[in-house]
Amino acid sequence: MSEHLIWDPLMIQRYNTAGPRYTSFPTAVEFRNVDSDQLERNALCTPSHTPLSLYLHIPFCTHVCYYCGCNKIVTKNKGRSIPYLEHLKTEIRMKHALLGGSRSVEQLHLGGGTPTFLSDDQLTDLMEFLRNLFTFSTAETADYSIEIDPRELRPNTLKRLRELGFNRLSYGVQDLDERVQAAVNRVQPESMIRAVMIEARELGFRSINIDLIYGLPHQSVESFDKTLDAIIDMRPDRLSIFNYAHLPQRFMPQRRISEDDLPSAQEKLQIFGHAISKLDDAGYHYVGMDHFALPDDELAIAQRDGKLHRNFQGYTTHGDCDLIGFGVSSISQVGDLYSQNAVSLEDWQEALENGGLPLSKACKTNADDRLRRDIIMGLLCHLDIRFNELDQQHNIDSRTYLRQDLARLQPMCDDGLVNIDEHGVQITDSGRLLVRHACMAFDPYRQQDDQTRFSKAI
C-alpha cells in the first residue's frame, strides 16, 4: 500500500458528503427492533471454533464532555456501578452458557463511558470473573485493551491494569489547548498526559493510542499545531483524529457548545489537512478513516500484510473473531447476526431480571449483505477489491452483479480517485481520504437514505 496521501481541498469539498463510518455492514441504523431474544440465542448456540472478541460497555462518567455523543450516564455516585456490575455478570454468565465449549478469547476491550470509573478492586474482580469463565489466549498477538480518561486514574490503576493482563491503552485527550478544553469541559493539563504516557511505557503496555478531535470550539490550525507537536513528542503507537460532528438536536450535551465558537468549515478542513501532513512528516502511517499508526505497530503491519479488519471497535487485527458485547447498548457480531443490547439502562436491567438476554435490535445478513460487506471492508482496509476473489467467495459473476454499483463510481473514476479495470477496483492515492464515498456506491441502503443521520467524512 502506498504511503503517499494527496491533499486536494477542492476535491475533498466536492465529495465530502455525510455517510457511515462502516464499522459494520449493514450499518447499525439498519438494525430492527425485535420482540424476542431467540435470534441471538440461536446464534450463540451454533457450534463454532471461531475465537472470541469480548466487548464490555461501562457507561458511567464522572464528568460530561460537551462534545460527546456516546451512550453514557454522568454521575459522581460511584455506588451506581455496584448493581450495574451484578447485572453485567448475569449477562456474561448467560451468554457464556449459550456459547458452550472452550472457544479462546483473543481480544478484550473495555469501553464506555469511562471504564476507570470502576475502582481498582472492581476492575480486578471483573477480570477474575471473566478469566474463571473464559479461556484467554496467551499468544503475543492477544489484544486486551481499555479506554482511559487520564483524569480518572488512581495512583496504582495503570499498574493494576497491567497486572490484570491489559496490554493496550487508549487515552482520550482530544486537545491540549486550555481554552478548547474549558469550552468542552474536559480540562486535563499536558503534564498529566505526559505523566500517564511515561508510566504506561514503564509498565510495558504494548501499544498506546491517543484520541484527538478536530473541529472543536476555539480550535485553529495554529492551536492544533501546538497540540500535535506535544503529542508527536509523546510518540503514541496509534493516533485517532476524529471529526467533531456538531449535532445538538441529537446529543444534548452539545447544546452547551456555542456554534459561534466553532471553526469554519474551511478552517476545519485546513486543520485536518495540516494534521495529515505533520503526522506524515513525523513518520506515522495513515491506516484510514482518521486512524494513524507507527510503521511497526500491529495495525500498520496487518495492513501491509493484507490482514487488517474493521468492526465495531474500528480497525483491528482480530476481525476474524466473533464479537460478543456485554452491557447496556453493546453490539455483538456472531456469524451472520448483528445484535444490539437495550440502549436504556432500565430496559437492559429489566430483561436480565426477567431471565432473558437484553436484546433490543438485530440484523441477520443475507448473501447480498455479505458480498457488499466484503467489498466495503476490502476498500476500507486495503483500498482494493478483486473481481475473481469475489466470484469465488460468493459464487457470482461480480462484474455483472455489480454493474450499477460500478457505474455509480464513474464520477470518482473521472476525477482520478478510483480505478476500475478488468481485475477489480482500486482507490488511488488521491482517493484515500474519500474512501467512505466510494464505499457508499456499493451500499444499497444509502441510495435513498436520509444522510443527516451520519457525519461528514472530513
TrEMBL record:
Protein's pathway: Porphyrin-containing compound metabolism; protoporphyrin-IX biosynthesis; protoporphyrinogen-IX from coproporphyrinogen-III (AdoMet route): step 1/1
Residues binding S-adenosyl-L-methionine 2, per UniProt: Y67, C68, G69, G113, T114, Q174, R186, D211, A245
Protein EC: 1.3.98.3
Pfam annotation, one family: HemN_C
Cofactor: [4Fe-4S] cluster
Reactions catalysed, as given in the entry: coproporphyrinogen III + 2 S-adenosyl-L-methionine = protoporphyrinogen IX + 2 5'-deoxyadenosine + 2 L-methionine + 2 CO2
Any GO BP: protoporphyrinogen IX biosynthetic process
Function: Involved in the heme biosynthesis. Catalyzes the anaerobic oxidative decarboxylation of propionate groups of rings A and B of coproporphyrinogen III to yield the vinyl groups in protoporphyrinogen IX.
Protein name, as recorded: Coproporphyrinogen-III oxidase
Species name: Thalassolituus oleivorans MIL-1
